Amino acid sequence: MSKVGFYGLEPWQKEYAEENSDVEKEFFDEKISPEHLPNESDVDILSIFVDSKIDGAVMDRFPNLKFIATRSTGFDHIDLEEAERRGVKVSNVPSYGENTVAEHAFALILSLSRKIYMAYNKIREDGDFSFDELQGFDLKGKTLGVIGTGRIGKYSIKIAKGFSMDVVAYDKFPNEEMAKELGFEYVSLEDLAKKSDVITIHVPYSEDTHHMVNEAFLDQVKKGAYLINTSRGAIVDTQALVFSLKEGRLGGAGLDVFEEEGVIKDELDFLTTGKPDGHDLKTIIANHILIDLDNVIVTPHNAFNTREAILRILDTTLENIKSFVEGKPQNLVS
């Protein structure tokens, strides 16, 4: 009988998994990574989230490992080449929250466009109810540039249309039928930079999308435009982003993800157990600069985090595990 090791579930998620899956299970509170190697275990199936990093050293701790079910759409936290070399299959959750992530992207947009955090902070910290420095801008009539028109990008376009925004989009594989249906235009990445008042990123992370938003791209953006990233941190060149904000080219940014995100989330752990090799210390410093800027809104990789979306993630993950056990694996990425 297969045995599943679930890492990083909250108590209510453990209870849900217990009630909705018949496989043998073990639950571990910790996240696992090369810096935090787990104790050796006889589980043959792993279920992890994006905050666990799986490479060969981690896989070595699971001598019976046959299958990894990540509770996420992205899978760049798993060494797929190493998994394939070992004959370990990997599945993901291809769709759980197109509306969930798109809604969070617009929460960031509205926080910036109406200076919500600045207004709240003035009242809470200073008791200041004046309108000074709080003038925002309408979304109606502005142009939203959508990078990536998959499920989340498509839902973002639908929301934008509800705000009476114009939309331009870039995708490596344009869907002209969808463009006609939703009333937007596909353009080059360069033209998207030049035309957009707000740019939102919805592509997966890969070698092709690494630093897709870089110095050359940011040099072309419309002066005063805003950048939103709810996808993956490394799609944006962090240092180039800081310079663009400091120079006033970008008007602001809303970020749910960072490069070197793991280090930023637990710097004490990095200082005591981390290894500088493989980390960009300049990027880590740049992240602190971003967090301190008044025209930047930061959330902690929280775009996915609604109860409804997490239940969809758990349901798909449990179904992925069941299908694998039954010899009919689904949603495989490797």
Describe the overall structure.
It is a single chain. With 334 residues, the protein is of the alpha/beta class. It has 2 domains: 3-96 and 307-325, Rossmann fold (3-Layer(aba) Sandwich); 98-298, NAD(P)-binding Rossmann-like Domain (Rossmann fold, 3-Layer(aba) Sandwich). Helix content is 39%, strand content 15%. Helix 1 (11-20) crosses helix 14 (307-325) and helix 4 (98-113) crosses helix 6 (151-162). The mean pLDDT is 93.
Strand order of the biggest β-sheet: 8-7-6-9-10-11-12
Query: How many structural domains in the coordinates?
Result: 2
The assembly state of the depicted protein chains is single chain
Query: What is the overall silhouette?
Result: globular
Task: Please identify, by name, the CATH architecture of the largest domain.
Answer: 3-Layer(aba) Sandwich
Assign the structural class, choosing from mainly alpha, mainly beta, alpha/beta, alpha+beta, or little secondary structure.
Answer: alpha/beta
- Helix and strand element order: EHEEHEHEHHEHEHEHEHEHEHHHEH
Helix count, DSSP H or I runs of 4 or more residues? 14
Report the helical percentage. 25-40%
Q: Per DSSP, what share of the residues sits in E-state strands of 2 or more residues?
A: 15-25%
Give the tags.
alpha/beta, Rossmann fold, 2 domains, 7-stranded parallel sheet, 5-stranded parallel sheet, globular
